[in-house]
Amino acid sequence: MDTAPARKIRVVVVDDSALIRSVLTEIINTAGDMEVVATAADPLIARERIREHDPDVITLDVEMPRMDGIEFLRRLMRLRPTPVVMISSLTAQGSSVALEALSLGAVDVMPKPAFDLRNGLQGYAEDIRERLRGAARARVRPAAPRVTGSQPLPPPHRRLPPPSLIAIGASTGGTEAIREVLEGLPAVGPPIVIVQHMPALFTRTFAARLDRLCPMQVKEAEDGEVLRPGWAYLAPGGATHMAMRTTLQGWCVVLQPTPPVNRHRPAVDVLFDAVAREAGRRCVAVLLTGMGKDGAQGMLHLRQAGAYTLAQDEATSVVYGMPREAVVLGAVDEELPLEMIAPRIRTLLVGGTR
């Protein structure tokens, strides 16, 4: 019996550079499961193209004539929520703007194609195709207002001593999920170690933003520094994995320039495996929204070591990939809506009681 071919992912490319539009169109159209249905040189043209073609995903530049990408994104998310992947230049200023885009509802951010790196464009092409596939499955409808604590939490599945460490992993959609979790935690608590898949220049800006918004102090992690209570440490993007080891002074950060794991560096699995070895049952681990499977195997090792493991549920995940893989492996003690994760950690911080 013949079956109809799956519908291709429909993409609209918005960028004021004709060269970038051409390169992105070639990258996307070369994949068998997606196609560029329209391009636009600025947001005003894009508005008409989007209305005409009803795309599954939009790639959007930041700096454009007549209206910048941030203002266009703000209007788009209010009037016609659509998955958006921002294409941003990797500068300190650009990373700040890209993080603003993520806070407004963009699913992901990508650097502009690098034409001066030998064989670099092929890796970029594979990366952007994967991100577009993930974005096409993303939930971007406006979130209903959350009323934290409106329903009492049931007791934890297991009673453990108060944890000495919190480990968090996330990918697509994770910047806002991490912010919400950290905002709900106390200013003084166990150290927190975090891996969020991000480009290299974005993590320092993201850490600075979290530091402004959250009760605890947040910084980009540095090799060899000792983990301190009341601090959260974000793995630097791009060049290294983040692990940890035990020293006479306590747990300290280890940054390793080893090959990517699960196509990522830093990888959540590398951090979670290190935490399982060094902290075991003294840890609470959280796996948030993200595409792919990174973190699932590491979370299984954490649970086997006695850690208490939490995963974000499907309904509140932008992309329910990484949490789902952990659930399938049997690595998760509890699967919770995003707004319930910080309250659950708070109960665990006092030994599982309110």
UniProtKB/TrEMBL annotation:
Indicate the segments forming the Response regulatory domain, all copies.
10-127
Keywords assigned: Chemotaxis, Cytoplasm, Hydrolase, Phosphoprotein
Q: Where would I find the CheB-type methylesterase domain in this sequence?
A: 161-352
As its record notes, the protein acts as a catalyst of: [protein]-L-glutamate 5-O-methyl ester + H2O = L-glutamyl-[protein] + methanol + H(+); L-glutaminyl-[protein] + H2O = L-glutamyl-[protein] + NH4(+)
Q: Output the InterPro entries linked to this UniProt entry.
A: CheB-like (IPR008248), CheB_C (IPR035909), CheY-like_superfamily (IPR011006), Sig_transdc_resp-reg_Me-estase (IPR000673), Sig_transdc_resp-reg_receiver (IPR001789)
Q: What is its EC number?
A: 3.1.1.61, 3.5.1.44
Gene Ontology MF term list: phosphorelay response regulator activity; protein-glutamate methylesterase activity; protein-glutamine glutaminase activity
Q: Which residues carry this modification: 4-aspartylphosphate?
A: 61
Chief place where the protein resides: cytoplasm
Give the annotated active site. Answer: 171, 197, 294
Please give the Gene3D superfamilies that the UniProt record associates with this protein: 3.40.50.2300, Methylesterase CheB, C-terminal domain
Q: Which CDD domains match?
A: CheB_Rec, REC_CheB-like
Record-level GO BP terms = chemotaxis
Q: Where in the cell is it found?
A: Cytoplasm
**PTM characteristics:** Phosphorylated by CheA. Phosphorylation of the N-terminal regulatory domain activates the methylesterase activity.
- What ranges does the record give for the region Disordered, renumbered to this chain? 139-161
The record's Pfam families line, in alphabetical order, gives:
CheB_methylest, Response_reg
Q: GO CC terms for this protein?
A: cytoplasm
Known function? Involved in chemotaxis. Part of a chemotaxis signal transduction system that modulates chemotaxis in response to various stimuli. Catalyzes the demethylation of specific methylglutamate residues introduced into the chemoreceptors (methyl-accepting chemotaxis proteins or MCP) by CheR. Also mediates the irreversible deamidation of specific glutamine residues to glutamic acid.
> Which family would the database say this protein is a member of?
Belongs to the CheB family.
What is recorded about the domains? Contains a C-terminal catalytic domain, and an N-terminal region which modulates catalytic activity.
Can you name this protein? Protein-glutamate methylesterase/protein-glutamine glutaminase
